[in-house]
Amino acid sequence: MSQPVQMNLEAGKEYHYCTCGKSKDGVLCDGSHKGTDFTPTAFSVKESKEYYLCSCKKSANEPFCDGTHTK
Ligand code: FES
Q: Which atom, in ligand 1's list, is nearest to the CA of 39?
């Protein structure tokens, strides 16, 4: 079971959510998808604060954790 990753995100900054599951931190793209069919999803946030990012890749609210990993 993959736990969400707690991370401080800045408002307006562009982040790239890892969809391949191979990035080192499990949530942000670090280029490890090379050679796979996956591409990262760009996203940004409206408020600078701490977020929980989904690492189980099953959240209906990706890139954010919606608690699905507990089910
Ligand atoms: S490392 Fe997973 S999408 Fe880039």
A: 3
- Residue 13 structure tokens: 């900054």
How close is the Cα of 30 to the center of ligand 1, in Å? 6
Q: How far is the CA of 33 from the centre of ligand 1 (A)?
A: 4
pTM of structure:
0.91
Tens-level pLDDT at each residue, the chain (71 residues): 689 999 999 999 999 999 999 999 999 999 999 999 999 999 999 999 999 999 999 999 999 999 999 98
Q: What is the DSSP letter of 45?
A: B
